[in-house]
Amino acid sequence: MRDPRPFWHPDKHADRRQFLLTRGRIKTAIRQWFETEGFIEVETACLQVSPGNEAHLHAFCTEYVPDAGPSAPRYLHTSPEFAMKKLLAAGEARIFSFAPVFRNGERGPLHSPEFTMLEWYRVREPYTQLMDDCATILRLAAAASGKTHWSWRDRGCRVCEPYARTTVHQAFARHAGIDLDKAFEGQQPDLTKFAATVSEIGVRVASDDTWSDLFSRVLAERIEPALGLERPEMFAEYPTHEAALARACTANPRVAERFELYVAGVELANGFGELTDPKEQRRRFEAQMVEKERVYGRRYPIDEDFLAALAAMPEASGCALGFDRLTMLATGATRIEQVLWTPTA
Q1: Distances (CA, A) of 335 to 54, 142, 325, 342
Q2: Of all residues in the chain, what percent carry a pLDDT higher than 70?
């Protein structure tokens, strides 16, 4: 049962205070490590022309009223990604940010409408390096919290153990009995085949489901709860059409240079070998917005300035990590509000 008292109630604050102090120690340790690695901390504007173009992420919209001329919509960003990539195009090579980000319609034990995202980029370095970065961040958080065994809902993980690396294909075969190769027709996903396979393993299939809907449902029900148990796990090589901002793997263009970090069944981070082809990026954004309009009846504009910067951006890898979730697991908190200094009303 949730505590009905406001967060500022002295007794409730006293209960949360140790979590919040540990949050500060973790942030300090991570910041110091990035600086020793030659990274520069940057701050990006929260108000953007586009909040991002992923079909199932929803933004907060406001209105910009200039001194002269018509007003225009602006959005609170769902990630600092577009702005940080513009800085890479400007010439920065190693940057990181603890950015406040905003996602509408998301609230629960692991979700807050406003939260902190730790995001960082390395120019001309492989995305596998970000996996090692994530492992370092876990060790730093463990040292700052004094806890090396983290748990979530009866699932545990020894976070200082060497991480496992599992491909999406391997995990679907191991935990759901699904051969993803059979869900494709050549290079393209085959909805009919995949729907039949998903139905066979007892996962619900609706008449209007897309391939991505089914993929996400199997992932949530069968795969995620089994990831990051006993030791951290890097869940890698997503199907390319499930990685709108990542480049395809050279050896197999059906999968992308994308991974997610899982600890105790909880997703903590999402990393990419970044796509730098503006034409392909536009195509993917437009496809995402077609899907958003189909499902939700609305779409977001495409940031043309971002696409222009992408053409000038060098090859890079980037990762976004949910800092509040990291703090939750490191401290043993059970709700995200326990590790936010001033939770959203």
Answers
A1: 26, 19, 9, 13
A2: 99
Asked if the structure places residue 179 within a domain, the reply is no
Instruction: Name residue 289's amino acid.
Output: M
* pLDDT for residue 322: 98
Residue 250 falls inside a structural domain: yes
Strand extents, DSSP E, 168-232: 184-185, 188-189
List the 60-64 sheet strands across, edge first: 47-48, 72-76, 60-64
Helix 128-145 vs helix 323-331: angle between axes, to the nearest 10 degrees?
40
CA torsion through residues 272, 136, 92, 125, sign: negative
Residue 145 lies in a domain: yes
Q: Which residues contact 96 (CB under 8 A, 6 or more apart)?
A: 34, 39, 40, 41, 42, 118, 119, 120, 121
* Alpha-carbon span 215 to 337, nearest angstrom: 30
- Determine the Cα–Cα distance for residues 9 and 42; give it in Å rounded to an integer: 34
Domain-located, residue 80 = yes
Residue 89 — pLDDT band, cuts 50, 70, 90? very high
Round to whole Å and give the CA distance between 96 and 75. Answer: 22
- Give the chain's domain count: 1
| Domain coverage including residue 245 | 12-163+231-339
Q: How far is CA 147 from CA 138, 151, 184, 241, in A?
A: 11, 10, 43, 38
The gap from C-alpha 131 to its chain's centroid, in whole angstroms, comes to 14
**DSSP assigned state of 274:** B
DSSP 78: S
Q: What is the CATH number of the domain that holds 265?
A: 3.30.930.10
pLDDT tens digits, residue range 103-135?
Answer: 998 899 999 999 999 999 999 999 999 999 999
Q: In whole angstroms, give the CA distance from residue 195 to residue 153.
A: 30
Q: Say whether pTM exceeds 0.85.
A: yes
Question: Residue 197: how many CA atoms within 13 Å on its side-chain side?
Answer: 22
